């Protein structure tokens, strides 16, 4: 079997912004246990503006993108 190259972006899941979550750092801290991983959320959500309760935001399911963005 021929190996398959990984996709350009890691797999993600969608979360709903809740009241009190105002920044991507808040989302990263709550869902990824690392506020510094906000850059991954930004990369998965180009053009994302101000966060609003009820808004859908993509977050990564693993740290591959973080590793690439912080090199």
Low-pLDDT parts are: none
The succession of helices and strands, N to C, reads EHHEH
The backbone outline, from C-alpha atoms, is elongated
Count of runs of 4 or more consecutive helical residues: 3
Quick one: biggest sheet? 2 strands, antiparallel
Radius of gyration: 13 Å
Mean pLDDT: 85
Instruction: Give the strand content.
Output: 5-15%
The tally of strands reads: 2
- The rounded distance between the terminal residues' Cα atoms is 32 Å
Order of neighbouring strands in the sheet with most strands: 1-2
Decide which structural class fits the backbone.
alpha+beta
Give the helix/strand layout.
Layout: E1 12-16, H1 24-32, H2 38-44, E2 56-60, H3 64-69
Antiparallel strand pairs: 1-2
Question: Would you write up a description of this structure?
Answer:
- There is one protein chain.
- The mean pLDDT is about 85.
- This protein has about 70 residues and is an alpha+beta fold.
- The longest helix is centred in the middle third of the chain and has 9 residues.
- The termini are far apart.
What key attributes describe this structure?
single chain; 71 residues; alpha+beta
State the gist of this model.
The protein is α+β, with helices and mostly antiparallel strands and 71 residues long. The protein has helices spanning 24-32, 38-44, 64-69, and strands at 12-16, 56-60.
């Amino acid at each position: 079997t021929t190996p398959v190259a990984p996709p350009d972006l890691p797999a993600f899941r969608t979360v709903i912004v809740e009241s009190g979550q105002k920044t991507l750092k808040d989302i990263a801290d709550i869902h990824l246990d690392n506020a510094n991983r906000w850059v991954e959320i930004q990369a998965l959500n180009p053009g994302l503006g101000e966060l609003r309760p009820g808004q859908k935001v993509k977050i990564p399911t693993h740290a591959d993108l973080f590793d690439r963005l912080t090199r």
